[in-house]
Amino acid sequence: MEHVVNDAVHQALALLAIDSPSGYTGKAAEYAYNQLKELGFDPQYSRKGAVLVNLTPHLPQEDGLLLLAHLDTLGGMVTRITGDGRIHIINVGGLRPHNCEGENVRIHTRAGQVYTGTFQLHNPSAHVNPDYADTPRTFETMEIVLDEEVSSKEEVEALGISNGDVVCFDPRTTVTPSGYIKSRYLDDKLSAGILLALARQVSTGEVIPSRPLWLHLTGYEEVGHGGSTSVPQGITDVVAVDMGCVGDNLEGEERKVSICAKDGRSPYDYSLTSQLIAAAQKSGADYAVDIFTNYGSDADATLTAGYDIRHGLIGPGVFASHGYERSHKKGVLSTLKLLDAFVG
Question: Catalytic: which of 221, 253, 254, 325?
Answer without folding.
Answer: 221
